[in-house]
Amino acid sequence: MTAPALSAAARRAVWRRQFLLQGCWNYQGMQNVGFAYAILPALREFYAGRPEEALKAVKRHLEFFNTQPAMGTVILGAAVRLEESVAAGEADPRSIGTFKVGLMGSLGAIGDAFFWGALRPTASAAGAILALLHPLAGIVALLALYNATHLLVRFRGFAAGMQGQEGAVAWLRAAGLSGKTEDRKLAAAVLGGAYAGAYAGRHAVLGGDLFIAFVLFVLGVALVRLFTALFRKAVSPSEILAFLLVVGVLILWD
Amino acid sequence: MAFRFALAALLGSLCYLDRTAAFQFMLHRPLVVATLMGAVFGNFAAGAQIGAVLELLYIARLPVGASVPPDDTGAAVFAGAAAAAASSSIGLDGGSFTALLLFTFPFAELGKIADRHVRKVNGRVAHLTAEAVDRGDLRAVEHGLLAGLTLFALSGGLLALAFSGAGVAVAKLLLPRFGPGSHLEFSALLPALPLLGAASVYSCSRTERTAAVFFLTMAAVFAATVFFRWAA
Looking at chain B, which residue has its C-alpha nearest residue A115? Predict the structure, then answer.
């Protein structure tokens, strides 16, 4: 038994649909509907004229699935290749579930640390600083910094996945996202420090005295330390803002 | 004004889609959303100004696994609309700016509750999708996804409508009730807010060298800012 090769049109459709991986995010299956939706054009080609097997394949992908959405493209590409092998009778259908479950946790952890913990703060801090010069410069910097890497990972991750499980693993090793996470976090620290220094400096200038400026700088460092300690104790930004609002109302009351 | 609110709802719904359901191109970030809302309500610079501070305020909470972070998109809809409306009525002084930033937290929390609710309803959609596939209907997957997207978009549009309305109401009705003295006193809290944002970035980017890199940069930029401002 041979499965028909995946057409360029179906491959493009899967690529486009991966942007909707979280389109029906829910607490039970999380990204399950999104994953089934993304891989559906490939399944329709592989199981053309075999509706019962197509149905089984779709059900396989409606099982629980959750990972970082950009990293999901690697698993999606590899799952397409695996489905091709299953349709050709060369692989056990259970291997797809095993592969997805085996990879989604670790890719989720790598992706969360890289995208949410490092790349997004870097892009946001750069955008916030440049917005002080011109709003559009800030927005362009934020979107360009984030999406240049984001789209590259999606594109290359999907292409590597389409080369099969070995291709996906080799790409992940070569991409070295853990090392890049460290670099991006340092870049975020530089930009965050610059942002804090710029704003604290703007207010210190109003004091008109070098000693007052120094005291305000020390106060600024102490506040950053205090807020960071509160975040580590799981205090949310909303709770801190609520506290500051109460302080503000008390100031007005006097 | 009705046209502005309709536009705010439309743009808000697109930004909310980007937040979870589609693309994740960062069109939902507060800097982008607050600037858009500022433009819709007549002053895009005021929206961008408040968006630049709001951008980092909530970034410490990450969308990891099933956890839903505070809705900083909703906070930006409120703050952007309010900043633009305030700048065209009483003017966006330091006190109003501070007050608007502090008022964002109920909207961030309300948006989070709405997001959780949509995800719960999506659970029912996913269940119905699985049942339809069991009956042999493959197209149910596409319908299920479309239903999920529609729910996210509708919820985003309604939140944007409500939050921008609240923003305009706060700017036009609440802020003018306080005199210039109160505004001056309230602005004493303003320096703390960008530092809260910087602390959010700091807590996200913890490595062995983060503390040294962060505080050295902060000191250098602080010194340069003070020096050049005084020199000018």
Answer: B62
The complex's ipTM? Answer: 0.95
Question: pLDDT per position in chain B (232 positions), as tens?
Answer: 899 999 999 999 999 999 999 999 999 999 999 999 999 999 999 999 999 999 999 999 889 888 999 999 999 999 999 999 999 877 788 899 999 999 999 999 999 999 999 999 999 999 999 999 999 999 999 999 999 999 999 999 999 999 999 999 999 999 988 878 787 788 889 999 999 999 999 999 888 999 999 999 999 999 999 998 888 7
Which of A132, A124, A167 lies closest to B29, judged by CA? A124
**The total number of structural domains that make up chain A:** 1
Residue A165 within a domain: yes
Closest chain B CA to residue A70 = B24
Residue B92, Cα to own-chain centre: how many angstroms? 19
Q: Which domain holds residue A48?
A: 8-182
In a domain, A117, yes or no: yes
Query: Which B-chain residues 175-194 have CB contacts (< 8 A) with chain A?
Result: 178, 182, 185-186, 188-194
Q: Which of A197, A202, A226 sits opposite B219 (nearest CB)?
A: A197
Query: DSSP H helical segments within chain A, as ranges?
Result: 8-17, 32-46, 51-61, 72-87, 94-111, 120-130, 135-161, 165-175, 177-205, 210-232, 237-253
Q: Can you give the residue ranges of every domain in chain B?
A: 2-189, 191-232
- Both structure tokens of A56: 């089984």
Residue A239: inside a domain: no
**Min Cα–Cα distance to chain B from A73, Å:** 12
Coil, strand or helix at A65? strand
Its pTM stands at 0.96
In a domain, A217, yes or no: no
Residue owning tokens 């609520």: A242
